[in-house]
Amino acid sequence: MIHFFLLFSLTFSGVESLGINYGQVGDNLPPPDKVLELLTSLKISKVRIYDTNPQILATFANSKTELIVTIENEMLSQLMDPQQALEWVATHIKPYFPASRITGIAVGNEIFTGNDTVLMSNLVPAMINIHSALAQLGLGSYIHVSTPTSLAVLENSFPPSAETGWPSKGDYDEIGATAENAAIYNRNLLRRQLANEGTPLRPNMRLEVYLFALFNEDMKPGPTSERNYGLYQPDGTMAYNVGLSALLSSSSSTSSSASISLSSSATKTISMEYKSLAYWMFAYLVISLEIILTRRPLHLED
What we know:
Elements: E1 3-9, E2 18-22, H1 32-41, E3 46-49, H2 54-59, E4 66-71, H3 82-92, E5 101-107, H4 117-136, E6 144-150, E7 162-165, H5 179-194, E8 209-211, H6 244-251, H7 270-275, H8 277-294
Parallel strand pairs: 2-3, 2-8, 3-4, 4-5, 5-6, 7-8
Antiparallel strand pairs: 1-6, 1-7
Helix pairs in contact: 3-4, 5-6, 5-8
């Protein structure tokens, strides 16, 4: 139910960030200019999209928003050819950079969680070719290459860059998919991130976290939860109140006594939060991440 995975990078910029995933699998989503207005009002300046939508790239030009774009899984076979990779970067990236602040290219999406061995074998060569194409076009030092993958497939990853979220609605058998749990989970996540908290093992290392996701997307396949990860409805109203604006405002305040204002419909007392399923699931994920980071990688012997 929980989306939680890493961006495994060929290069890693070490940027500290709070970002959000901007999916577009819906027939009623607002236009990119309205999305940019919303992100600006929330003070979110880092966004991942799942393609290289030219309308989004053009709209976000000359804004302060940094973008991670995505190469769709079905494109990987073509990018096995270095010339095709060069043409892809020249067509989809170079015309928009640097006006559009593209900082990363995610090659594929969750490839190792499936069973397509051909797709898996194409991934690393495609990443290498895209990285080489960026270098040839003078963009290699500005744009990193990565691939999102589930935490479950990794022996060791450092530094981590996590994307995570919780659905506000689900099918009858999707226990815990409620607006209350989604609000508590994401609120605790935001508080940790804005307080610069790392893992228990590395408390001073801030994770690069992207919230999943910005909008509920009505055309996504799968169970009901897949269409209800958004913080917002397509009409711009909140799916639930995570207190994002208040949390971001309090993080920039110099007053140590600054309070976080949340609506009564979406908040519980601190003691109730610590008893919630969402809190304990979040604690479990943090502990699991620490275990993964401390495990030694496997070494194959001749």
